[in-house]
Design goal:
mainly alpha; 2 domains; 13 helices; binds iron/sulfur cluster
Length: 264
Amino acid sequence: MAKRTHRSPAKPTKKAAGILAAKPRPNRGTTSVRTVGAKTRVEEVGKGAKRLKPWTAAEVHEAFRRFQEANPEPRGELEHLNPFTLLVAVVLSAQATDAGVNKATRELFPIADTPEKMLALGEERLREAIKTIGLYRTKAKNVIALSEKLINEFGGEVPNTRAELESLPGAGRKTANVVLNMAFGQPTMAVDTHVFRVGNRTGMAPGKTPLDVELNLERVIPPEFMLHAHHWLILHGRYTCLARKPRCEVCIINDLCRWPEKTV
Ligand code: SF4
């Protein structure tokens, strides 16, 4: 076999060559973010959104006034019974749909709604209960480990600070934000794939990473709307500003949205 030197680099595989030869895709300002384990991978950042005219404070206020008028008490769609089951549901929801998580937890939570009961159930039975959810083996391990940690370090209670929540196995910044917001009424902004897309596409809070979008949203959203803003944006992305075919014709902020490709 020929000895490889730095002067004669290995030929790229067909796949790699294809990637290298691929023409750059037109920037449509669409965005998608996937969480892989603890890391978040931004697949396509809304670069175009960065060049869009920034929203004025009055426009942001008007958008959230409309969201509030349309849905005064928005609810998350992850089913849970208490802060512990909320925490578990959010950990299980990484790379999974809320509907898929709910299907599994509807039978799980009535028998394991505390860290003690989760430990008593054990990893094997937990794995069996959540096997329809992606990455279920790792998630089962994490849920058992976080239950142990809650008992050993937090008296069996879900803590209410970001640092403590992020110290739990399987819980990252997004998990902490959801739990702080939904269980403890704190005005946090959890950025999932929907919020990331809406923040960039509309031009309201452009950012290359979920953290950028989170911080930009926190900066522009008036404090009186912050508590529910996370749910309004998720629901807007999930049901109206869809990734592939946004329903601009029925969008209640279509006159404010900066996306050049909006269809109205
Ligand atoms: S106008 Fe279209 S692209 Fe803009 S926020 Fe509404 S649905 Fe999304």
